[in-house]
Amino acid sequence: MPTFDALLRELRGLIPEIDVQGLVGANARPAVIDCREADEHAQGAIPGAIWIPRGFLEARIEKHVVDRAAPIVIYCASGNRSLFAVRSLNEMGYTNARSLAGGFTGWKRAGQPFEMPAALRPDQETRYSRHVLLPEVGIEGQQKLLKAKVVCIGAGGLGSPSSMYLAAAGVGTLGLIDDDVVDASNLQRQILHGTDRLGTPKVESAERTIKNLNPDVRVDKHRARLTSKNAVELLGGHDVIIDGADNFATRYLVNDVALRLGIPVVHASIFRFEGQLTVFPAHGAPCYRCLYPEPPPPEDAPSCAEGGVLGVLPGIMGVLQATEAIKLILGLGETLAGRLLVYDALATKFRELKLRRDPKCPTCGDAVDRGAIALIDYDQFCAAPRR
Ligand SMILES: [Zn+2]
Fold this sequence. Notes:
Elements: H1 4-14, E1 17-18, H2 20-24, E2 31-34, H3 38-41, E3 50-51, H4 57-64, E4 72-75, H5 81-91, E5 97-100, H6 103-109, H7 122-127, H8 129-132, H9 138-147, E6 149-153, H10 159-169, E7 173-177, H11 202-213, E8 218-222, H12 231-235, E9 240-243, H13 248-261, E10 265-271, E11 274-280, H14 288-291, H15 304-307, H16 313-330, E12 339-344, E13 349-354
Parallel strand pairs: 1-5, 2-3, 2-4, 4-5, 6-7, 6-9, 7-8, 9-10
Antiparallel strand pairs: 10-11, 11-12, 12-13
Helix pairs in contact: 10-11, 10-16
This protein binds zinc ion.
């Protein structure tokens, strides 16, 4: 059996290497893979390098480099481990991989620039470890969440689960807009609040729950009702709007402001045993008014007082809203834009309806100047108790 030293000598004769100057001067920059361990990577890395720890190299390389003939340079600390890494890629059919001679030490010694990779505090590493373990999220994704700003309209039935899961996920700033106080009839579904908070403003109660869940989260409280006067100020600057409004007037206002500001809206509504969910994307099409161009006349609007709602229903729909918001922030998967998801709790069925943009839509239609969309305060024709 060969010793490690002998094996290394043999590999060095077999595996193609590139030196620092060769990498810097390469005409077309190859994919640079950093195969070091987390503690080494955290001390600095070659700018633009893809970090795949050696133990995950075979499992993850295909996600990052699809073309087996693409030029690849792998580096470790000193240029030894990367030889073994290249051998393994050769066995997987990668034909143009090289090892960086001298590794990261050689790179620094040559005076080349390096960057400090995004890092989490030790307590955040623990808190978000199940996110970081997902290659689709990782430390970078978690950093994106921590920098993200989401605003929830309503701290009630939908706002409770959505804001709590967003807070738990580490969304760094949560805006909450609600003018109501906690009532005993809310507690059947509004899990942000509790019996000891009766009479407390919902935004205050929500902040206490969220801060306890995750002190990383900054809560921007607005004890207000959204109106045409304050909507641009309250919603502007956010990455995603969660619409948990309980009335048509606010839904139209949210739609129109979001189109003006170019912010995606995750919309949900609930009634009795049924919930609906969709995403109105940042580019605005299709939008809420493509579905319902104008509010229904007050006499046709469902009477919220008679409505009633199964307590768990906003829980399900609110968690789906949080899921869509996180996907939007991370740019993951496919959102519900252009699709309306309908959940029937009694039948336990999810249905999906295709939504189409209406070219004559009053707010996202062809002829509309979105910057000039007028904001309207419709009458509150459903002034029933809040969901
Ligand atoms: Zn539209």
